[in-house]
Amino acid sequence: MRPYIKLLILLFSAFIVMTVFSELSEVRLFGHKIVTMQSFLTHDTINDSVEFCDVDTTNDVIANDTLPRVLLFVGDSMVEGLSSRLGAYAYHNGHKLYTVIWYGSSTEKWAESGKLSMYIESYKPDYVFICLGGNELFVRNADERRKYVRSIVSEIDSLPFIWIGPPNWKDDTGINEVIRSEIGDKRFFLSKGMRFDRAADGMHPTEKSSCEWMDSVVCWMKRQMPHPKMEIPAEKVRKPYKTIVLTPDD
């Protein structure tokens, strides 16, 4: 048999084996688990409990508040993409959305600055949204951030709130678990594990992906806890009523 024919047969055989493996979630050889293509693709990439959802098919499980409300959305640079979609929800449902984007901020900065208390006093929100943790994915000792999360929650006091977790582009050293363990599953939206289309920096979700992210948060809210009226907006995005931008040096 000619060498090139042998090579073609070998390549074809390898293709068949890879195709079979790609359809299997688990293969065992002599009692040992073999990593398949499917298990490789899903490892640390897909979180079965956190997926983009279609707001068109989601009904409120928990009754919503039908009155117009004041919403306050604070956090790091991830707020920029999310707030445009939340702004559309706010406008469509008669709410007023104030947004504070603090570039480069962390739980530590927010906790030690007292800015959250200041904005709550200024705008008197009925509901608070937070998105923090993206700048703390790789901190050496995530548990040390626990005190900052507690401080932020204490500033919110009795106001209803949700905390949107960071859209991990790599696995974190524990910040997601620290936040979740402090505020509980009912108020923490785990974004880690969702598949985002990323901007050129590889970290921030694109505008379209941010809209889908916010839609997923709304779907989750409707199933988890009392919430402002959140009917699907007629327009895709809209600027918040007022946006305050802070630099890392503020």
Spell out the key features of this protein.
alpha/beta; 14% strand; Rossmann fold; 2 domains; six-stranded parallel β-sheet; two-stranded antiparallel sheet; 8 strands; 250 residues
Itemize the secondary structure elements and their pairings:
Elements: H1 3-22, E1 27-29, E2 32-34, H2 37-42, E3 70-75, H3 78-92, E4 96-102, H4 107-113, H5 115-123, E5 127-131, H6 146-156, E6 161-164, H7 175-183, E7 188-189, H8 207-224, E8 242-246
Parallel strand pairs: 3-4, 3-5, 4-8, 5-6, 6-7
Antiparallel strand pairs: 1-2
Concise account of the structure shown:
The chain has 250 residues and is an alpha/beta fold. The protein is built from 8 helices and 8 strands.
Verbal overview:
The structure is a single chain. This protein is α/β, with parallel strands linked by helices and 250 residues long. It has 2 domains: 3-42, no CATH class; 55-246, SGNH hydrolase (Rossmann fold, 3-Layer(aba) Sandwich). 38% of the residues lie in helices and 14% in strands. α4 (107-113) packs across α6 and α6 packs across α7. The termini are far apart. The model is unreliable at 17-50 (pLDDT under 50).
